Amino acid sequence: MVDLLPSFRGGPPGARRLFDTLDEGVVIQDADGTVRDWNEAALQMLALTPEQLRGRAQVDPGWQLRWETHAGPYDASEPVRSLLRRVGESERVTVAICANGATTRWIAIANHVVRDDDEPARETIVSTMTDVTEQRETERENARYREIIGTLDASYRILEESPIGMCSVDLDGNVLRSNMAFLALGGAEATSIVAMVPDEDRATLRHAFTRLMEGRTPSVRIETRVRKPTSSEVWCEITAVAMRQGLPDAAILLLINDVTERRLREVRLRQLAEMDPLTGLHNRRSFVHALRERLTALERPRRAGGDWALLLIDLDGFKDVNDTCGHAAGDAVLVAVAAAIRDRTRLDDTVGRLGGDEFAVLFRSGIEDAVTIGEQIITRIAVAARSVPGTPPVSASVGIVRLRPARRAEELLEAADDAMYQAKRAGKARVVEAAP
User: Fold this and answer.
1) CB 289: neighbour CB atoms within 10 A?
2) Closest C-alpha to 30, from 125, 128, 127
3) Who contacts 417 (Cβ-Cβ below 8 Å, separation ≥6)?
4) Which string of b and e fits 270-280 if b means at least 16 CB within 10 Å?
5) In the chain, where does the domain assigned CATH 3.30.450.20 lie?
6) CATH number of 137-261
7) What is the pLDDT of residues 86-131, one digit of tens each?
């Protein structure tokens, strides 16, 4: 994310659009609390203008903020700074925000500290905001259900009328009674909740039922996939509560909420943090993280998975493309080159754009195979660059280093970089292997 965050405003239009279309609010600050960037969702959730967000204008008198678990004051002249300072102390808080008499919205805010790989002392604070108003209402409904389900009549009425999927099951997970919302989720043929979840989660579900009935926990919450009658799957949060009174024919009550949309939003945020917005490859931070993980695995021979190599690829003549054809053509060449590299590698190889016209590949291979693959990538890059009409010729120089245990990622990148520059000095469009 370090590669992306500073460049959203004034950066590639695609990255800006992706940033502003996120459902989550995002505010980016320097370590001293200076607000550097934000998206439209953050402004809407906080009910503030950009100037108010940055502390350059007073908030409206009708703007109110209330802590979920603490009634302490906040600085009305700098509400965002005082709010995010409180988040930093507890890592995550939930607040209620009401602006000029509008409906109160509950916002969950979490801070994430991102450090620059090149400047470890430099920190960027990313605050993510999620509107949890509906979730809180659902939780309040769940709590209300648990409170009034003390009698048989009340429990049956709730089961039938609740918009939340509900069913009663025995210790083996067999469905004894269900409501219409559950039937809409699992279908009329759903006779076992255990059969509806993936094989790898069934033991977890059965163990949870045993803990409930033995009285070791009052409730259990599990997030898993649920198979629908159409054979498609959705992500669901299952809350299980032991019912020893009020439901004589049921051992356990299940509340089942579809959380597929939330899971998709989480995936989008992870992609935003790990993906180069232009090429769709790993960004520098994500690639270096993968390299460090592989070096850690190499220290455990049984998990190393054979020999591994790192290729560092730098384009030759790319500056001429930007100078003569413009940056739009340059971006088109980078996209074509990324596709060419990805086309030559395998699905489990890690391919990244480290910045500018520099790419890297991490893959399992002996050093001789790595040289061959590097030469093939050079050929494909030259062909791919020619696919952009009117651009000057582009080639690539490749440096190769073999991964060794007990070496740092930065050392390997530096060694590959040295080998790549040797290739350039030797005439470009060639592969040079780093000395052991």
Assistant:
1) 16
2) 125
3) 312, 399
4) eebbbbbbbbe
5) 5-131, 137-261
6) 3.30.450.20
7) 676 556 788 888 887 777 889 888 888 877 666 766 778 888 888 8
Return the CATH class of domain 5-131: alpha beta
* pLDDT tens digit sequence for 402-433: 998 878 999 999 999 999 999 999 999 999 99
Record the tokens describing residue 290, joined without a space.
């993968």
Instruction: Provide the mean pLDDT of the chain.
Output: 82
Q: Across the chain, how many H-helices and E-strands are there? A: 16, 16
CB neighbour class for 14 (10 Å; exposed up to 12, middle 13-18, buried from 19): exposed
pLDDT exceeds 80 at position 272: no
Q: Which helix (H) or strand (E) holds 311?
A: strand 308-316
DSSP E strands in 172-294: the ranges are: 175-178, 219-227, 233-242, 252-258
- In the block, tokens 């009935």 appear at 213
Between CA 95 and CA 67 the distance in angstroms is 5
| 252-258: strand order across its sheet | 175-178, 165-169, 252-258, 233-242, 219-227
Residues 6+ apart with CB under 8 A from 209: 169, 171, 172, 173, 240, 251, 252
Domain with CATH 3.30.70.270 in the chain: 275-433
CB 347 within 8 A of CB 279: no
DSSP assignment of 256-282 equals: EEE-HHHHHHHHHHHHHHHB-TTT-SB
| Measured distance between the N- and C-terminal CA atoms of the chain, rounded to whole angstroms | 32
The CATH class of the 275-433 domain is alpha beta
Decide: 14 and 44 in contact? Cβ < 8 Å: no
